[in-house]
Amino acid sequence: MKALDTQTFQDLELIVVDQNADDSLRPILQPYLSKFAIKHIQTYKPIGAVAARNMGAREMSGEILAFPDDDCYYEPDFLERVNRELNTHPEWDGLTGNVVGMEHYYSKRPAYLTRFKVWWQGLEFTLFFRKAIVSKIGLMDPAFGPGAKTPWGAGEASDYFLRAMEAGFKLFYLPDLKVHHPGPLTNPRDDKAEAKCVYGYSMGKGHVLHKHHYPFWYVLYLAARPLARAAGWLARLRWSKAAISIAVTKGVIAGYFLSIKLAQIAGDISQPLANSM
To answer: Taking a C-beta distance cutoff of 8 angstroms, is the pair 252, 223 a contact?
Structure first.
């Protein structure tokens, strides 16, 4: 909230989807109600991260939509720059950026998002896109992400990027446009808990790979990349760190083949229905 209050660009609207079972968020929002537009939507039950984002997005009145996590924050001139970049480049239908503390993982060069580089060109909380994308392709797939009650612990961002590109939209990546995310992505955690977490995230990646019909050689490529990091950790006798990288490989493979199996099951169910019509 403070980070939004100090933005040099103030033509904004904050939509808060509150999944708390009480009114504990109201006192936090209250001091800012007179400073910028806030819509407070309460569900009183967990519905998952992506379903909550979609619920909020349906209430938007602006032309540019973003999905900051509840623990993200922006530098004071961040939104001013996003607005300037999109005004300067009307040919860009959306803009993505980098994550502070994760620069080593993401691409170093500004470029249009592509099918084979999308994994290193942003996340859902670094995405800013024009309303035209929503109008044409809809919102994020609620089968992905935390709280979705599916095996796909992440992947909603790459899935949405790919859907937008497949519909003909152009998204541009700026590596020096950085969002602060002082959560699990940048803070050290218990290695066992992290291995479990990244396994679920990587299952989501495997699902995206199957959903968007990537060639199998590329699935193997993405699954094999973490093994090089695992080898480095093993050489330093860092077993638990190696296990995290191996969990990524396992998750990608497991997610990809589970996605195939579920698609086959869905096809088997729908075939008799089609034949009976």
So the answer is: yes
Q: Where are the beta strands (DSSP E) in 113-222?
A: 127-130, 171-179
d(CA 138, CA 170) in angstroms, rounded, equals: 16
Distance CA 136, CA 143 (A): 19
Q: What is the residue extent of each domain of the chain?
A: 2-179, 191-275
| Cα→Cα distances 173→65, 81, 85, 176, 230, Å | 16, 14, 11, 9, 28
For 128, which DSSP code? E
CATH number at 2-179 = 3.90.550.10
**Rounded Cα distance, 195 and 203, in Å:** 12
Cβ–Cβ < 8 Å for 45, 18: no
What is the C-alpha to C-alpha distance for residues 6 and 11, in angstroms, rounded to an integer?
12
For the chain of 277 residues, list the mean pLDDT of each consecutive stretch of 10.
92 93 91 92 89 94 92 95 97 97 92 97 95 94 93 96 97 97 64 90 97 97 95 94 95 97 79 46
Q: Residue 81 carries which side chain, given as an amino acid letter?
A: R
Compute the distance between CA of residue 116 and CA of residue 277 in angstroms, rounded to an integer. 40
Residue 32 has a pLDDT of: 92
